[in-house]
Amino acid sequence: MEKIKDLIKIVGDENKRYIYDLIETDQMELLNHEGLNEITIFDIIKQIKEFEVVYPDGLVKYVERAKTLLKKSERATNKYANCMIEQPDNLTKIKFHWKNSCPQFNECSDTDNKLYMHSLYVETNKNGVNTSSSISNNTNEDSFDEGTVLACNSFSLTEDGSTPVTNTSTDEIVQTDQYSKNGVILPSEMRSMNKEEEDERVAAISAVSSASYASPSSGVLPPNISVIEEYIYYENIGLQEIDRVCFILLAGGLGERLNHKDIKLKLITDVVSEKTYIEYYCNYLKAFQDFIKKNKNKEIDIPFIIMLSDDTYEKTIDFFQCNKYFFLKKSQIYFLKQKKVFCFKDNEAHLDFIYKNNTFYFSKKPHGHGDIHSLISKHIEIDDLVRKGYKYLYFFQDTNALAIKVLFVCLGVTIKKELHMNFLAISRKPGEEIGAICKCTNTDTCMNVVNIEYNLLGSIIEQTNNKELVDTEGYSLYPGNTGAILFEITKYNEILKKTNGIVPEYMNPKYTDNTRQYFMHPTRVESMMQDFAYLYFSHEKGTEWNAEGPESKGKKKKIINKNKSSPDRQNGDSNGNCCCNANYRYSRVGVTQLDRALCFSAVKNNSFNAQRKTQNNNVHPECIYSAEADLYYSNCAFIELACTYNRKNFNMGKMDNKTFNGVRYCMPPKVLIEPQFAFTLTHLINKIKGNIMISNNSTLWIKSDTIITNLYLDGTLVIERLNAEDSTTTPFILDQSLYIKNRGYELVPLHHKSNDHPDNLKMRGYKLVKREALIISG
């Protein structure tokens, strides 16, 4: 103790409280460390001061909070103790009837009507070439806008006549010198086909153009018509408010556990487009702005708020600057930086630290994505957004590319049902490692819709000696949380002002052994973005959230209130406490549950962990390979729904199980739909007019506004517009019966002995070899 007394004298009156805080919180291992001296104590104090900027309650409160949460964890109790768990209220479930369930966990079923056709040939070369054929040019142009471009039998390549080479297609690319240098192959340049080839070609076109409507081969049944009508009903309601939505992206993570050495936003969504996740999202926002300009005759810059961390902040801003903000304006993007908090090493809440290079370093980690609300409270003028006419906030995660594709159906449900908060959810299997959305009721409180993490849900169900309830298909009655949420901005702003965006905290320690004393990894107090839902229900009941859960009204704890002139104070007490205010009493939190294939596929695991999950538990691998495959499958599913609604057929070849980096998963045709072509199911229904047949190894990439009638594709087709920024041009109209056969693009395994491949490919275990493609451009 003499050493500590001496240090107190050395640091002076202005700093001695920090040593007292360490004593009060029992950090004696640190205080008794032989490396602690008159120099290193100031390094420690400096770090504590930096921590208090992030966590204003201070070190003592933080440690006390951790001890409370750890005791609850040790006793396997939590804020849901003695709660009854039920299916959530305000649940809107839009479920399509698939003949076979989505391919994630099942053997891929074969397709009945597969056609294998021969290529056409250039007279001077025996290699297959890109071509399209039609048995009819009677396209009905009356149904399209004046000035629409009709593209029939169109061919376009790069200036040198070869398929573009990219990072994912290098040494193994097959050169395509047989292409005509002018980019157009006329029918007279093709050699005559023999009778057998001609008969097969005509049979393929006839099969596509004349197929009668039936249950599509990959699974959609006729009852889906009514479900599709419900989907597009909500989608069209949401689309009317496209200019009223702000976007919030949570992107504080690095890709280290995925074996990616950079920020996760620089992961590429797929090897065909090579778009990074952030470029993918920005492209959607740009498409939304172009749509608003064209259809609402107004120009807006959609606010895009991105939460980053110390680990990702500089790299993300540099990436935006190097790419000129991906065609967005710098002024419309708000970068918020989340700071880190101290970590603990054991159940006694002793701070984790290392002593290196003659000084001390506390372990730190981000406080969780729940910080987004407090960061918005501090740095974003929500009142200003309201004045500008914005009504909704869409929160989504960094590596779920599908979430933005279903925005407008969720928005439509939010508007129609007047929800203040709307979770995007999926069907989940019992035991699946994804948060469960439930109704939580005890003697004092009823929280109609809240998220319960999967590790807590199991203990709650065990306490009641019950099993998790499932439906007839084996899915839980508690939908899975995707991490995408819509907020109505006015109610969100009201609660934000009263709480400063502080949401409930928790700890999730992993112990080294059954003694449950020491942690496997340094563990911190953290928070979750979705737990903002508790603030709605606490205000309904005239309570507020502290570190542990709801405070009862009798405790009379003062609510943090930055805005003393808030209109709701008239219904509170003299201290600004919120008492059963009529507005809060009717807070409405809801859930929109969709098929997983349409809206959720995140990148959470490296290939080793993904392999273990699929082999041991038969659950979704949630790796970069599965995310890419699911992006293709989602696009196939939306095209299939469009065909079904139009009473047309969509057929694709058997989806083979492929194994890359030890992960076995179904790979569908590589179908990419850019938002410039369609970003809603309604758009797809209006633009896909006929039957579609795509072989399994084919690649279809639609990058611009196009009308497709009947299409048979066995190879690669890319449809693009050279002036991609011109959103006012009229669409292409493809030939009524388009037949395409070429060698296409192929996914091939990497040679693992080589270290020359970029991380984005090594993570996948494959690359794209571009052999041939028909590129229609204008």
Automatic annotation (TrEMBL):
Q: Which residues form a coiled coil?
A: none
Q: Name one GO molecular function term.
A: UTP-monosaccharide-1-phosphate uridylyltransferase activity
Instruction: Alphabetically list the UniProt keywords.
Output: Nucleotidyltransferase, Transferase
Q: What is its EC number?
A: 2.7.7.64
What Pfam families would the database entry show?
Answer: UDPGP
**Disordered: annotated span:** 545-572
Say which domain of life the source belongs to. Answer: Eukaryota
Q: What class of enzyme is it?
A: transferase
Q: Does this UniProt record's set of keywords contain GTP-binding?
A: no
| GO BP terms, alphabetized | UDP-N-acetylglucosamine biosynthetic process
Listed cofactors? Mn(2+); Mg(2+)
InterPro entries for this protein? Nucleotide-diphossugar_trans, UDP-sugar_pyrophosphorylase, UDPGP_fam
Q: What catalytic reaction does the record list?
A: a monosaccharide 1-phosphate + UTP + H(+) = a UDP-monosaccharide + diphosphate
Q: Which family does it belong to?
A: Belongs to the USP family.
What is this protein called in UniProt? UTP-monosaccharide-1-phosphate uridylyltransferase
Species of provenance? Plasmodium malariae
Traced from the root, the source organism's taxonomic lineage reads:
Eukaryota, Sar, Alveolata, Apicomplexa, Aconoidasida
